[in-house]
Specification:
The chain has 21 helices and 25 strands. The protein is an alpha/beta fold.
Length: about 850
């Protein structure tokens, strides 16, 4: 079976001569046909045109030929009917040649070509394989017969989105053609970008090329867009268009230079439908406008032998191939003999010119994505035909060939839908359920050079996965950026990033990705850029001074090694020694009148409790442990209760002693050791009961406080039941008030046997210390809270020791002559 190709038309623009048939003003000037058992037709748009506006100065049929839109539609419709007719005899619905029978049509690269082509061919259920832009079609009547050599378009948009997110380009602009694809991109795809944190400074419709006579209007619109893009602070611009949009982009970039301004320099992000197009008037133009651009492209592989194929192509190899001759003349700027073009050129084409000598801007020897798609499309049809012939005919006979010619083109659909093969590059070619090519996209970096050549460098890949997920890979180091970025990875932000230690704050009236940066409040941090809000550090950490990192809090407690702990411990031991010395003096002079006066046992009990109170202060220094936490507050409460109750007993004994001097006093029987012991034991019993209930219900325990101090974790003794702690203090306060009151009323009794005045002063100091203790205790934090309690213990104990015992010690040691009964009696008299 011979498989041949036919191509029509090469779209060209010309004015029909008066001799042409008015009934059929449109003639396909370039078409190529090669006979075979079955044919694959191609309807391809080859060049870009400008057309004159209709002026009605000529016959309408002549002016309509120059209408750009009608031009494309009418030529495409005509080419589609040629496929359905006998070759070179346009009789729609009639084909007398059963041998040269097209079975499929390859169309592109514009969406309009594919759409107009489908308007005719889909009526006959004719298989159509499109490449480049895929138009929006009616699914039932048109799209069901169209196969796209283009992956699922949503994967392309996801690839662009991942590219933007990868480089954190959250501030961008959009240029688009006002066609169905462009409108759908703006209204359906861009909201998806916004949901992922990308916002747009502008979304601008590109001025389309329409009529040559409207060039000034087009230029003004293009200039306005150019100034808009140049003024924008975005560094990236997404360009959504088709193959001819590259020309509009070039004019947009360069138009400002003609008005005395610098050209636009942005990172252009182009869709796969766009490609570099070589136009004759662009031949001498530079290519730097596209340097550093990124584009999505249908995945391609290198085809072995393609370079050799191109090098061997000569314009004289096939006289019927008018395409190649026209290309040759335009590419090499020469003319063949008897050419219909301008014959004033002095350069004649020999046909031996070499394609590899052409600039890349004129002709690329490498296979582009569009060429690769056409290559795969041809092989897809060939494999489908092979599968169809294999299923119908088991043996290749001449009769089989005749029967193959009788097959209808619609019978090929089943085999095209299920075609699957490896091309010569080893890549799998097949269609998905929606008749899209089952492949991915490449990310292309455009690199231009001073010799007007360029490279398409693959720097990434977009592989389809289960929708909406894709696998996106990019090689940052392989990308060449536009010159103004000095090969540094550029940013495209509405404003500078909010660095760690700051958070974003929305700016009223601006897009959501435009924001101010405000410092984190006290106690909060942000450890990443552009955080919406600052957050608290973990409980055992605290913010550093830059508020961008959480430092672990260091444990803290009152230690013996630090100056404060050492001074308090030294003071406690010193006072302990002083108290022990006082006790020794009193024991040594226990038989002297001043010691015997007012109950020696109470004196010893008070001094012993003061000794223990000074030692009790040491329990508060050092790392809190289970045992020390259990006993530090209870020991303090019990010892001080004994001390205060001893002072109370002393005061009561003084009062009773003077009351018993009255005749017939009934209080004489209460004057004795049993009364003092009863007072102390009663008070002790109450405090012990309170402490026992405390320890039995909710005892103190080692704990840590992470909230009170900003940079430290306080190791402390949790009081357990705070109410029981204040009950202990409350009972001590009650005893202190009773003692102070009784001493105050007894202060004017005769001095010789009266120490109530000293007790009054000592209790005044004692009460003052503990009254000031409460607010100070509640207002301090950490180890200083413990230090306040230790100081209160030492100060109040020292007050009792100093005011009660130092005057007596002075007499005992310094004035022994006053420590005799006779002297005391004389003082009384």
């Amino acid at each position: 079976m011979a498989l041949a190709l036919m191509f029509l038309p090469k779209i060209a623009c010309r004015s029909p001569s008066d001799s042409e048939n008015i009934a059929r003003p449109f003639v396909i000037h370039h078409k190529y046909h090669q006979s075979g058992d079955v044919l694959i037709a191609g309807i391809l748009s080859q060049i870009f045109i400008f057309a004159e506006k209709i002026t009605y100065k000529k016959h309408p049929s002549e002016e309509l030929e120059n209408d750009m839109i009608n031009f494309l539609a009418r030529w495409t419709f005509l080419a589609a009917m040629e496929v359905l007719s006998t070759w070179d005899k346009l009789v729609p619905n009639y084909k007398c040649d059963t041998k040269n029978k097209p079975v499929a049509v390859i169309g592109g690269p514009n969406s309009d070509v594919c759409l107009f082509m489908a308007g005719i061919l889909s009526i006959y259920k004719f298989p159509q394989i499109t490449y480049g832009s895929a138009p929006l079609m009616d699914e039932k009547n048109q799209a069901a017969f169209v196969y796209r050599m283009f992956p699922k378009v949503v994967h392309q948009y996801m690839g662009i989105l991942h590219l933007m997110l990868h480089f954190q380009w959250s501030w961008t602009g959009v240029l688009y053609l006002a066609d169905n694809h462009g409108e759908r991109f703006v209204h359906t795809v861009l909201p998806m970008f916004s949901q992922r944190g990308i916002c747009f400074d502008f979304i601008e419709q590109l001025t389309q090329m329409t009529f040559f006579s409207e060039m000034e209007t087009m230029r003004a619109g293009l200039l306005e867009t150019a100034y808009l893009v140049k003024r924008s602070t975005v560094n990236t611009v997404i360009v959504h268009g088709e193959i001819q949009t590259i020309l509009t982009l070039r004019l947009l970039v360069e138009i400002l230079e003609y008005h005395g301004d610098s050209r636009i320099s942005k990172i252009w992000i182009m869709t796969a439908q766009m490609d570099f197009t070589s136009l004759l008037f662009q031949r001498t133009g530079g290519l730097s406008f596209i340097h550093g651009a990124l584009s999505i492209s249908v995945h391609t592989e290198e085809i072995s032998g393609f370079h050799s194929f191109l090098k061997n192509r000569k314009p004289n190899s096939d006289p019927q191939d008018g395409f190649l001759k026209d290309f040759w003349q335009q590419a090499f700027l020469c003319l063949f003999p008897n050419s219909s073009l301008d014959d004033h050129s002095e350069t004649k084409c020999t046909g031996e010119e070499k394609l590899e000598t052409l600039p890349v801007s004129v002709f690329e020897l490498n296979m582009t994505s569009h060429s690769y798609s056409i290559y795969n499309a041809v092989y897809a049809v060939a494999h489908a035909l092979h599968d169809m012939s294999s299923s119908v005919f088991k043996h290749r006979t001449d009769r089989g060939k005749q029967n193959l010619r009788k097959l209808q083109s619609w019978q090929l659909h089943h085999f095209l839908e299920n075609v699957s093969f490896n091309n010569t590059a080893g890549e799998r070619v097949s269609f998905n359920d929606n008749r899209d090519l089952a492949t991915g996209f490449d990310v292309i970096n455009w690199v231009t050079f001073n010799n007007e050549s360029f490279l398409r460098v693959k720097v990434g890949r977009v592989d389809p996965q289960i929708f909406p997920n894709i696998r996106f890979t990019i090689h940052d180091n392989a990308i060449v950026w536009p010159s103004r970025f000095n090969q540094e990875s550029p940013s495209s932000l509405c404003n500078d990033n909010c660095y760690p230690g700051y958070s974003k704050q929305r700016v009223e009236g601006r897009p959501f990705c435009c924001y101010d940066c405000i410092p984190c409040p006290e106690g909060k941090i942000s450890n990443e850029r552009d955080m919406d809000d600052c957050f608290q550090c973990p409980e055992d950490h605290y913010p550093n001074k830059f508020k961008d990192f959480c430092n672990p809090k260091s444990p803290t407690f009152l230690t013996f090694e630090e100056a404060l702990g050492t001074s308090l411990a030294s003071s406690a031991l010193f006072l302990f020694c002083v108290t022990a010395g006082v006790l020794g003096i009193f024991i040594r002079h226990r038989d002297t009148p001043i010691v015997k006066a007012n109950n020696r046992n109470l004196t010893y009990t008070l001094l012993l409790s003061l000794l223990l109170s000074f030692l009790c202060a040491l329990l508060f220094i050092g790392q809190p442990q289970k045992v020390t936490c259990l006993f530090r507050q209870t020991a303090f409460g019990i010892i001080f209760s004994v001390a205060v109750s001893s002072v109370l007993a002393k005061t009561i004994i003084v009062i009773l002693a003077f009351q018993t001097t009255k005749p017939v006093s009934r209080l004489r029987k209460w004057l004795g050791k049993r009364t003092a012991a009863s007072i102390i034991l009663f008070c002790l019993l109450i405090q012990v009961t309170i402490c026992t209930v405390w320890l039995a219900t909710f005892p103190p325990f080692p704990d840590f406080d992470v909230n009170s101090m900003a940079e430290e974790v306080i190791l402390e003794c949790n009081e357990g039941s705070v109410s029981m702690f204040y009950c202990v203090l409350g009972f001590m306060s009650f005893l202190s008030i009773c003692t102070f009151t009784s001493a105050f009323f007894a202060r004017k009794l005769p001095d010789s046997f009266n120490e109530a005045k000293f007790i009054t002063f000592s209790m005044l100091v004692f009460c003052s210390v503990w009254i000031s203790f409460v607010p100070t205790y509640l207002s301090t934090k950490g180890k200083y809270t413990v230090a306040v309690e230790i100081f209160s213990i030492l100060a109040s104990s020292t007050g009792l020791l100093g005011f009660i015992f130092f005057p007596k010690c002075y007499i005992i040691v310094m004035k022994p002559d006053m420590n005799i009964r006779k002297q005391l009696i004389n003082r009384k008299l």
